[in-house]
Amino acid sequence: MNIVDLANDSELRIRSELDKELRYELGKFYTWVHGGRYDPLLEYYFERFNASTDGKFKFKFTKTDDIKLTFLKAKLMLTE
Q1: Cα 55 to Cα 32: distance, rounded to the nearest angstrom
Q2: In b/e form, how buried is each residue of 11-45, taking b as 16+ CB within 10 angstroms?
Q3: What is the pTM of this model?
Q4: pLDDT reported for residue 75
Q5: Whole-angstrom Cα distance, residue 24 to residue 4?
Q6: Taking the CB of the first residue and of the last residue of the chain, which one, N or C, has fewer CB atoms within 10 A?
Q7: How far is the C-alpha of 35 from the C-alpha of 69, rounded, in Å?
Q8: Tens digit of pLDDT for each residue in 51-69?
Q9: Which contacts of 19-28 are long-range, i.e. CB under 8 A and separated by 24 or more positions?
Q10: CB 59 within 8 A of CB 73
Q11: Do residues 64 and 47 lie in contact, with contact meaning Cβ atoms separated by under 8 Å?
Q12: Where are the alpha helices (DSSP H) in 3-66?
């Protein structure tokens, strides 16, 4: 069973071109988020995310952030 926020669900769906541009990095990123194992290329993924957004957001991806915060940043990046 999926619980969906009917009021906000359409606003939170991925509709960004970044999803296509960063397909490989996002797949590896989500594996890291949900698997909990360290990925030696994590800094590279963050560099790609930051380069692709090119200052569009007031946040940057860093390895010092909490994993939950990093996941939220990725979701926000993809809804834009």
Answers
A1: 24
A2: eeeeeeebeeebeebbebbeebeeeeeeeeebeeb
A3: 0.73
A4: 87
A5: 27
A6: N
A7: 16
A8: 988 878 888 999 899 999 9
A9: 19/78, 21/52, 22/48, 22/49, 22/52, 25/49, 26/74, 26/78
A10: yes
A11: no
A12: 9-12, 18-21, 23-35, 42-53
